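Support reply, case 0932

Customer input (verbatim):
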Amino acid sequence: QVQLVESGGGSVQAGGSLRLSCAASGYTSCTQDMSWYRQAPGKEREFVSRISKDGSTYYADSVKGRFTISQDNAKNTLYLQMSSLKPEGTAMYYCKTNPPWCDYWGQGTQVTVSS
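Our regenerated output:
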């Protein structure tokens, strides 16, 4: 069993920054390869970023160069540093585990970017 709890969302003006956190508990073999997704109102959930077990990082083209994913294995916490935020970044942000044998999602944290 894995529990994921996101935090750090909020309201920010365009151009601002936020850092999201995802605190994980449970099987560490599940939490070494994780991703961030987001879902805007009326839209499908979309991939934002991933950090793999070997530390490789991947980003959606829409956030590349502005968002940075990282992980503190000692704290079992995943982060997403978001800079130069745009209004289209308004969404619920979710963290998830990636291994196919343990597919878990957090409850989400809301990010609202005003123009």
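We compared this against your earlier run and they match. Two observations from our side: The mean pLDDT is 96. The two ends are 40 Å apart (CA to CA). Please reopen the case if you see a mismatch on your end.
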